[in-house]
Write a structure and sequence with these properties.
alpha+beta; about 325 residues; Peroxisomal Thiolase, Chain A, domain 1; 2 domains; 4-stranded mixed β-sheet; 5-stranded mixed β-sheet
C-alpha cells in the first residue's frame, strides 16, 4: 500500500532589514523604475549579523510546528535544502536546525539543488516516507542570505541583484488526508554546471574577499553562452517540468489552479504563466521579497493562501530553477 504524504504545517521567516528599490538604485546604478518594473524588486529583506541561515530556517520551523500543533519529538527526519552559504562550510546545517527545534528523536541531513531545491526536497521526502513507516513526520527547512555574495558593481551578476534573505519550513505527514503531494519532475542541463560560481574576480574593491567562511563573490563564467543557452531552453524546461509534475498526478495543465514559482524578472514570469495557460490572478509575484533561493515556493504558497488565490481542492504547482542548471516542479492537491 502506498501511503499518502501531505503538508501538515508550513511557515516563513524574514529578517527585519529591508532594502527598497530606492535604496538599491544608487548601489546598483540601475534606475529605481527599472528595478521595480522590469526586475521586479519593490523591496527585499536583508539579513543582519544575527540572522544566520539555520536561525532563520529554525524560526520558520517553529512556526510550522505550532501551526500543526506537533511535538517536535515526533519528527523522524530533518532535511535542510537551503543555502550552501550557511553558518559554517563543510557542515551539516540540518543537525543544527534539528537541535534548535527540539527534534531529539530525528536524524538530519542536507540536500542541494540550489534554487530548484524545494520541489526536489518534497519529492525526495515523500518517497522516503512512503518507503519507511518510521517516518511519520519529516521537516523540510531552508534558509538563505546569498545576497551577501553579490557585488553590485559586477554587471555579470546583474540577474542575481534580486537575492533576498529569509527562511522557510514545511512539515510533512505520512498517511495525511490533506494537502497531498502528488507528482514531481526535474531536469538538469549540465552544460551550465559551471555557469555561476564564486570567483575572486567578482569581489568588489570595497568588499572583503571572505564573507563568513566563504571566499569570493558569485560570478558568471561565460555570460554569452549562459544567455544563449537559457534563451533556448529555460521556458521549454519550465513548461516541461510543470506539465510532467501535473501528469504524474493524473491531471492536465488545464486542471492547475495556482502556480507558485521562484522570483525572476517580470516579463519572463508572465511568459511562463501564459505558456502553461494561467493568469496572473492564479499566481503571486514575489516583488516584495526578491529571490530567497528555495524558500520561494513555501512563500508563494503562504501568500497564495493569504490572498485567497488557493481554494480547497485546488491543484497547486510549485516550481523553481537553480544554477547548475536545474528546473523542478511538484504538484499538490490542496485541502
Amino acid at each position: 500500500m502506498v501511503f499518502p504524504v501531505g503538508i501538515a504545517g508550513f511557515a516563513t521567516h524574514f529578517p527585519d532589514g529591508v532594502q527598497t528599490a530606492a535604496d538599491l538604485a544608487p548601489l546598483t546604478g540601475i534606475p529605481e523604475a527599472v528595478l521595480r518594473e522590469k526586475m521586479g524588486i519593490v523591496q527585499r529583506h536583508v539579513a543582519g549579523a544575527a540572522d544566520t541561515v539555520t536561525g532563520m530556517a529554525s524560526s520558520a520551523a517553529h512556526k510550522a510546528l505550532a501551526q500543526a500543533g506537533l511535538d517536535p519529538r515526533r519528527i523522524g527526519l530533518v532535511i535542510s535544502h537551503g543555502s550552501e552559504h550557511k553558518d559554517h562550510i563543510v557542515w551539516n546545517a540540518a543537525a543544527k536546525i534539528m537541535h534548535n527545534i527540539g527534534a531529539t528523536e530525528a536524524y538530519a541531513f542536507e540536500m542541494y539543488a540550489l534554487c530548484a531545491g524545494s520541489p526536489i526536497a518534497l519529492h525526495t521526502a515523500r518517497a522516503m516516507m512512503q518507503a519507511d513507516p518510521r517516518l511519520e513526520y519529516v521537516l523540510l527547512a531552508a534558509g538563505s542570505r546569498e545576497n551577501d555574495l553579490i557585488n553590485f558593481h559586477n554587471e555579470r551578476s546583474r540577474f542575481m541583484f534580486n537575492f533576498g534573505s529569509g527562511g522557510g519550513a514545511m512539515l510533512l505527514q505520512r498517511g495525511a488526508a490533506h494537502n497531498l503531494i502528488l507528482g514531481a519532475s526535474a531536469i538538469t542541463d549540465g552544460s551550465l554546471s559551471e555557469a555561476v560560481i564564486l570567483t575572486d574576480a567578482a569581489v568588489g574593491s570595497d568588499q572583503a574577499r571572505v564573507v563568513g567562511e566563504v571566499a569570493g563573490r558569485l560570478d558568471v563564467t561565460d555570460g554569452a553562452y549562459m544567455a544563449e543557452r537559457l534563451g533556448q531552453v529555460s521556458l521549454t524546461n519550465f513548461v516541461r517540468v510543470i506539465r510532467e509534475a501535473v501528469e504524474q498526478s493524473g491531471a492536465t495543465l488545464a486542471d492547475v489552479r495556482f502556480l507558485g514559482i521562484t522570483h525572476m524578472k517580470k516579463s519572463f514570469y508572465h511568459e511562463i504563466l501564459a505558456a502553461v495557460g494561467l493568469k496572473p490572478e492564479q499566481s503571486v509575484y514575489l516583488d516584495h521579497y526578491g529571490h530567497v533561493q528555495s524558500v520561494d515556493q513555501v512563500l508563494a504558497l503562504e501568500l497564495g493562501l493569504a490572498q485567497g488565490k488557493i481554494q480547497p481542492g485546488d491543484l497547486v504547482v510549485l516550481a523553481g530553477a537553480g544554477t547548475g542548471y536545474t528546473w523542478s516542479a511538484v504538484a499538490l492537491r490542496w485541502g
